[in-house]
Amino acid sequence: MQSSLTIVMYHYVRDFARTRYPGIRGLDFAGFRRQLDYLQSHYRIVRVEDVVAAVREGHALPPDAALLTFDDGYAEHYNLVFPELYERGLQGCFYPPVAPIRDGVLLDVNRVHFILAATLENPAQVSERIDAAIEAADPALGLQPVAAYRADWAHPNRFDDAETIYIKRMLQTVLPEDMRNRVAQDLFAQFVTADEPAFASELYISTQQARLMQSCGMAFGSHGASHYWLNRIPRAVQETEIDTSLDFLREIGAPIEDHWVMCYPFGGWNEELLDVLRSRKCTLGLTTEVATADLSRNDPLLLPRFDTNDFPR
Ligand SMILES: [Zn+2]
């Protein structure tokens, strides 16, 4: 009985020869095509419907099954990835957060990526400004001293150095939301562009593009609405995040009454969230834990995924 599944996670897939932002770290389109060649020769790329049937009805997956997933709804998922997959007869599974796609909001996470891309040679000019904002903050906010934040958060992971992680964490989750938004917006205006709405409209797919991809056999699932760490917000907000994303999926014609997939922003989940997902009949959940999924052993709401960097390109 085949139950193992290799899930591959993609974010930015760009044509780096043409981009205005060469500092963004992502997969070059030529590398993506080579990686698809590799994956197609070593794996059988399955559709999300096959995985749902395997979980629900115990159908076997083919040997060496793999699933392709794309997070965050970037414009190149429509411009580059979709035509390439379509031509190869493959399905991609796409997880766009609602706010950037429907409301043109630039996500904190992307604001930070482009700030970092613009300051690659000297990320300290960014972290110094964050530290200065912490030191100048209203004492009523109850912030910790800079040294305490650095001790907690300035640690490298498998992709980023300590300084970069510190900047990302402070601006994505650690500082109070109003403050980190204001600091990140100032940094973005200084280092990237003052016209955020125009930038956002270029960065993400549109609702119409999502609908077209969906009607051509691509799969869409939930990545929340505002790209929060869903494990760090109260249940009522978790419910709003999920329900808003289900409304969006309905709007683009995704068959959510039959099955739907949750892809956790930043891989963040907790028991309360799983409870919310079960109450809305979620079928599969995708984490960022790194392993081959085993459908006979994993909780279907907590399937691990590899990153594109874990495979040759
Ligand atoms: Zn994401």
UniProtKB/TrEMBL annotation:
Compartments where found: Secreted
Keywords from the named record: Signal
An annotated GO cellular component: extracellular region
GO terms assigned for molecular function: hydrolase activity, acting on carbon-nitrogen (but not peptide) bonds
Domain (NodB homology): residue spans on this chain: 207-279
Family annotation (CDD domains): CE4_DAC_u2_5s
Superkingdom, natural source: Bacteria
Signal sequence extent: none
SUPFAM superfamilies according to UniProt: Glycoside hydrolase/deacetylase
GO BP annotations listed: carbohydrate metabolic process
Gene3D superfamilies in alphabetical order: Glycoside hydrolase/deacetylase
Any coiled-coil regions, as ranges: none
Family statement drawn from the similarity comment of this UniProt entry: Belongs to the polysaccharide deacetylase family.
Cited function: Is involved in generating a small heat-stable compound (Nod), an acylated oligomer of N-acetylglucosamine, that stimulates mitosis in various plant protoplasts.
Designated name of the protein: Chitooligosaccharide deacetylase
Organism: Rhodovulum imhoffii
